Amino acid sequence: MNFDAEMRHLLDIMPASGRMLTKIRNKPQQSQVIDTPFPLPWNRENRPIYINFDLWRELSRSQRDLLLLRSVAWVTGARWFKVDIYQGIAVAGLVGTVSEFSQGDAIGVIIAGSLSAIAFSQIWRKARSTKREIEADEAAIKVALRRGYQEAEAAQALLETIEAVAKIEGRSGLNFTELLRAQNLKVLANLSNVGIPKNNRDLEL
Question: How many CB atoms lie within 10 A of CB 151?
Fold first, then answer.
């Protein structure tokens, strides 16, 4: 696999938002095939996607395409500032912390800081929920359709990727979230009629 040609191809298949917001970086020392750290709120651009290209080359072309599209969908879909109750509490807590600190109120600082910590924890958990993981899979497939893939073909490629990555990384099996993702992809690939129960789809891990 030619590194420069692969980078050009990966950039070409990305959606425009991916090219604007993410940055692919080679990280041969990592044990994971691909790693997408949860973006911090002040890092809205150049969100890194780390790839170990020594491991990456063990995947097929379609598997690499879908894995990248899925990673781009996940990292660009992460939202700290989407307005909901937890973001509101987080902002209010931060403002309260600053206000109480400036007034020298130690108890107020602790209370406001605790509210912020709880709210940020909820934001983090929602970002790592099974719902968000499955949504990233489905978003990747939608982009793949615009790149010449058929839905069932793209879903099967991503399904095979989940299993292949676990093997490449030396893991004994799939974790709970990966099993749920795999079942959802089997439905999209027309390999199963059994969908995921809503209470499992919406789990926060």
Answer: 15
